[in-house]
Each structure stands twice: as C-alpha cells, then as structure tokens.
C-alpha cells in the first residue's frame, strides 16, 4: 500500500498572538501569522480556462485566495477593494504568477454607481464577464443589541447586502448561459452570533438573496450558489476583535482551529466550474466540522 502524505492546513489558535489593527478594513500585510492563500500542492486543470471573474474584496483573505485559485484554473480576474492598495497589488502579483491578468478596481461598493463602473471596467478590459463573486463585507463587534450604532448598522447592510443587489443587477445582462454567481455568506447565517448581530443578520439576508434569485436566473442559464465559511484567518479577525479573542480564534469548531483562505477557495472553483453544472440555490459549508442542517 502506498502511503500518502497527510497535508493538514495549519495554524492552531495557540500560534496566533493577541493583535488588533487601528484601521478598517484591516490589512493582511500586518497580520501575524500571515494568512495562507495559496497551496502549492493544488494543481489547476483548466476548469476556468479563458473565463473572466469579478471578485469583490479580492485584495485579501478569502477574496485573494479565490482570485489566485481562479487564475490557477486559467481565469483572468478583476478585483474590487476599498483602499488597501498594497494588499491588492500583492493579489495582482500572485495572479500574474499563473500567467493570468488581474485588474485592480479600487472604490466603495456601497455606491451603486461604483458597482456599475466596476462591471463596466471589467468589460472594457476583458470584453466579457463569466463569473461574479460577491464576497466583500464588513463586521463590527457589538456587545449588545442596545449598543448597536445606527450609522454603523447602515454601513454593514450597505456593504454586505446592498452591494450584492447593485452588482448582480448590473452584471446579469452581460452574463451568458453557463455563467456563475457565487455569494459569500457565513456559518453565522445559520447559527447566529450575538456579538456580531448586524453582520450575522446580513449574512442571513445573503442566504435568502442567493436562494431567491437562483431559480429565476436559471431561465438565463446562470447558476447562483453560495459559500458559508466558518472561522477563517483573514483581516476580518484583527479588525473586529482584540487580544485574547483573537488568540483563541477558531477553538469553537470541532476541528478546534481556524481555517485558512486556501481551504475555502476550492469551493468557489467548484461552484464556478462545470463540475457544479447541476447546482443552483445551494450553499457549501467549509466550516471546520460544524453540521448545518438547514
């Protein structure tokens, strides 16, 4: 019998020091340890050859990893991000290492006009759009319902869910049969999180949005699905949490560790490719072993 090397994606919570960042969005370049967005053992097989993808929040975290894995499968990508320019350039460099192009589109997805411009810039650069990944989001720690700030609540909904309406609305007329839309929801959409109440609520809205548009868009040959990650080591974490909450991150799931972005990206590759040709309105759950029943 040939023994295969077991490659366990590491890190464990005790390898994460207490940390926080003063800016929002936080920067991946300032995290310790740095998130792992690429797995050299993953070999692409042209599943997305000559496709074009627009990915929001593609400068870091899950979005960066998705951009790199799409490139490994042969896709050119455009990434939207707010103002994390150096992180975005690192994503661009990583994509280009796989001989694909990466268009950087800085701006605020809370603006419907910017969302329209982002799609148009992608079309101007690549001449088409095949895959839309609605991934960008913000989250804020909220001690209680009574302490939620109304302006912050509006910002969370504008970023996390309104932008999906804007981008999907403008992208659909340019998507041909066989195209794919993938929305990033969260384990919190299913389990809730009292300390991330507004964020969790938007993720529930994303789940409903995904299921609600999936069937009508099938009439156009467009598949809409989602991914609901568990605790993943991304700039989200030192942005929203501080101290011991960061150093204990990921202990709550059965695998007792946070996931890495590179463990989530293959779910997006699957849903974007013809491997998922019989899936619509569905959600994948790379969450560290938590069983989701709904």
UniProtKB/TrEMBL annotation:
<dbReference type="InterPro" id="IPR036291">
    <property type="entry name" value="NAD(P)-bd_dom_sf"/>
</dbReference>
<protein>
    <submittedName>
        <fullName>Probable short-chain dehydrogenase/reductase SDR</fullName>
    </submittedName>
</protein>
<feature type="compositionally biased region" description="Basic and acidic residues">
    <location>
        <begin position="31"/>
        <end position="43"/>
    </location>
</feature>
<dbReference type="InterPro" id="IPR020904">
    <property type="entry name" value="Sc_DH/Rdtase_CS"/>
</dbReference>
<dbReference type="Pfam" id="PF13561">
    <property type="entry name" value="adh_short_C2"/>
</dbReference>
<feature type="region of interest" description="Disordered">
    <location>
        <begin position="13"/>
        <end position="43"/>
    </location>
</feature>
<dbReference type="GO" id="GO:0016614">
    <property type="term" value="F:oxidoreductase activity, acting on CH-OH group of donors"/>
</dbReference>
<keyword id="KW-0560">Oxidoreductase</keyword>
<comment type="similarity">
    <text>Belongs to the short-chain dehydrogenases/reductases (SDR) family.</text>
</comment>
<dbReference type="InterPro" id="IPR002347">
    <property type="entry name" value="SDR_fam"/>
</dbReference>
């Amino acid at each position: 019998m040939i023994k295969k090397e077991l490659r366990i994606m590491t890190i464990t919570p005790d390898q994460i020091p207490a940390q926080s960042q003063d800016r929002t969005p936080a920067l991946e370049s300032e995290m310790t340890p740095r998130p792992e967005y690429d797995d050299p053992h993953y070999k692409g097989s042209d599943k997305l050859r000559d496709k074009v993808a627009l990915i929001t929040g593609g400068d870091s975290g899950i979005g960066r990893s998705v951009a790199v894995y799409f490139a490994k499968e042969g896709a050119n990508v455009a990434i939207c991000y707010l103002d994390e320019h150096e992180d975005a350039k690192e994503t661009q460099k990583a994509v280009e290492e796989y001989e694909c192009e990466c268009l950087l589109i800085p701006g605020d997805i809370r603006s419907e006009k910017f969302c329209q411009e982002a799609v148009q810039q992608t079309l101007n650069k690549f001449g088409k759009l095949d895959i839309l990944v609605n991934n960008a989001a913000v989250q804020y720690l909220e001690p209680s319902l009574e302490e939620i700030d109304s302006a912050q609540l509006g910002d969370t909904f504008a970023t996390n869910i309104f932008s999906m309406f804007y981008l999907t609305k403008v992208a659909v007329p340019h998507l041909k049969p066989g195209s794919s839309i993938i929305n990033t929801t969260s384990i919190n959409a299913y389990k809730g999180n009292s300390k991330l109440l507004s964020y969790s609520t938007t993720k529930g809205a994303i789940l409903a949005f995904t299921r609600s548009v999936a069937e009508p868009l099938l009439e156009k040959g467009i598949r809409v699905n989602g991914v609901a990650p568990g605790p993943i080591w991304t700039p989200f974490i030192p942005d929203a949490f501080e101290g011991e909450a960061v150093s204990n991150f990921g202990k709550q799931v059965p695998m007792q560790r946070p996931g890495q972005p590179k463990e989530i990206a293959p779910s997006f590759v699957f849903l974007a490719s013809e491997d998922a040709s019989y899936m619509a309105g569905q959600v994948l759950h790379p969450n560290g072993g938590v069983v989701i029943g709904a």
